[in-house]
Amino acid sequence: MRVTGWKSFGIGAAALAGLAVLLSASAAPPRMHVERLAAAPSSELSLIVDPGQSKVHWTVDSTLHTVRGTFAVKSGALHFDPETGKAGGEIVVFATSGESANSSRDEKMHKVVLESAKYPDAAFRPTQVEGKVAASGNSDVQLHGVFLLHGSEHELTVPVHAEISSGKWKGTAKFEVPYIQWGLKDPSNWLLKVKPAVEVDLELAGAWKPGE
């Protein structure tokens, strides 16, 4: 589900983001209880992400101003078991697509911080859903998983708001990425101090279907 570098950094996020909608705990998360979907041939549900309807927004604060930008979603497919909460799949974001409407700042973000030529993608891989997912309407859950950024994996728990309707779904998530703690370079200098975490807002949408 703020960081800046120079005037910004962005998470590829992620998520960035990613990103997920149904985008860390040391113990195994609780089991999830989910309302059954009538006519589902199995308990597992599959969610397909439509990149054209999805976006990663990021925000990072600095001593001079707040920088905002976006990343494009490359692909995504998620699945989870309503009985156990066990989840799988992947949401992939183009790290190379990060932009903040400032070419010099974005160049530094890609070359110095993200090194996006070397690490062109960022991904979120869910492992467990915690909470109750309604068969239709709104749900708020916690999605546990692994976030792959800059070549390293990090455990992450993302609060997700999901809306499910006939054949379609959409979700939003907001979370912070401590990029410096995760090993990326600090874009700060003697004049500009950048917050060591970036805030990510993930918007996802697509279609769902019962598992086969």
Describe this structure in words.
Strands 1, 2, 3, 4, 5, 6, 7, 8 and 9 form a nine-stranded antiparallel beta sheet that branches. The protein has one domain (45-210): Lipid/polyisoprenoid-binding, YceI-like (Lipocalin, Beta Barrel). The protein is 6% helix and 47% strand. Residues 1-41 have low confidence and may be disordered. Strand 3 (66-80) and strand 4 form a beta hairpin. The chain is mainly beta.
List keywords for this structure.
6% helix, 9 strands, 1 helix, disordered N terminus, elongated, 47% strand, Lipocalin
Instruction: Please give the alpha-carbon distance between the first and last residues.
Output: 28 Å
Q: Examine the coordinates and then state which fold CATH places here, giving the name of the CATH topology.
A: Lipocalin
Q: What's the tally of helices?
A: 1
Structural class: mainly beta
What's the helix-strand series?
EEEEHEEEEE
Radius of gyration: 17 Å
Subunit organisation of the chains = single chain
The CATH level-2 architecture is identified as Beta Barrel
Given as residue ranges, the uncertain stretches (5+ residues, pLDDT < 50) are 1-41
Query: How helical, in percent, are the residues?
Result: under 10%
CATH H level: which superfamily?
Lipid/polyisoprenoid-binding, YceI-like
Major beta-sheet overview: 9 strands, antiparallel
Please write the CATH class name.
Answer: Mainly Beta
Judging from the principal axes of the Cα atoms, what is the shape?
elongated
SS strand fraction = over 45%
Mean pLDDT level: 83
Number of strands: 9
- The number of distinct structural domains comes to 1
